[in-house]
């Protein structure tokens, strides 16, 4: 059996010398020194030897195993060095090739929509006015004609802080009073963009946070005709010159009279489709004449001044323009979606 061990040792060394890659080397190790390898299997035959032969064979097989392990480690180092050198040589930099262009980012689809809205109203003389995301109950509700316990508050379930009078704004209308008090007694013509927050269930059509653009104009002799003309021009600039508009009576506590504005569906050209629910019309914003109480709270005498106001959601505008059916796509940060715009 000792002769058999020596023959196996010589054969294993010869095979090791012929190994040409680390993958083949792993196979050699498994077949030779692994738990089912030829050397390991020979150790299980010690019981067949006589008492005099066992110590001699045991000592020799341990020496064989150690020498094969050392030879394996040396061969492994050689092969890894050779493979690394080959990899470096094959992937050497060719300085004559053109450089790889850096991937550049792009504007989010909501940012693009907001800039389109800014540009249109900027041409009409409106300025951008920024108001805080964290507001008081007074600015967000009471001064906008939402008295405490008013039923209309239930439409805007709020996020409250530890101070019950401090909330995350539920609409950018909260900035109306701030703008009026800052501009008084001068006329006002501003749009108020920003993020709004409502404690609502997240669905394909609603989210706990969303952007909104509020519009406000206060001056003398402003009429509902100015409101209709301003918003009709906006709709035609944004959705196409041939868009028709209509105003439907509605209710908002801070405007009187109030109206929802629709435009003819630009996806089906007003013929009727799934997006417009086969009516040919798409609702895009709410509007109205500033309520006298709101004017008074902003510092303006409603006997002298009048105003118009409107509000829209850029997410809804973008969903209509691009046929997006799930508002959650705007917040998922999925590049497959975002790179389409």
Q: Main beta sheet, described?
A: 7 strands, mixed
The ordered H/E elements are HHHHHEEHEEHEEHEEEHEHH
Overall tally of structural domains:
2
Give the tally of β-strands.
10
> Helical segment tally?
11
> What is the level-2 CATH architecture name of the largest domain?
2-Layer Sandwich
> At the third CATH level, what is the topology name of the largest domain?
BirA Bifunctional Protein, domain 2
Could you tell me the strand content as a percent range?
15-25%
Helix content: 25-40%
* Terminal CA distance: 77 Å
Low-confidence stretches: none
Taking all Cα atoms into account, the compactness measure Rg is: 39 Å
Strand order of the largest sheet: 1-5-6-10-9-8-7
The top level CATH class name of the largest domain = Alpha Beta
| Mean pLDDT across every amino acid position | 88
Shape designation: elongated
What do we call the CATH homologous superfamily of the largest domain?
Bira Bifunctional Protein, Domain 2
Strand pairing plus helix content: what structural class?
alpha+beta
Q: Can you summarize this structure?
A:
The protein is of the alpha+beta class and 341 residues long. The chain has eleven helices and ten strands.
Structure description:
The protein is α+β, with helices and mostly antiparallel strands. The chain folds into two domains: 2-90; 109-338, Bira Bifunctional Protein, Domain 2 (BirA Bifunctional Protein, domain 2, 2-Layer Sandwich), CATH 3.30.930.10. It is 40% helix and 19% strand. The protein contains eleven helices and ten strands. A seven-stranded mixed sheet has the order 1-5-6-10-9-8-7. Strands 2-4-3 form a three-stranded antiparallel sheet. It is elongated.
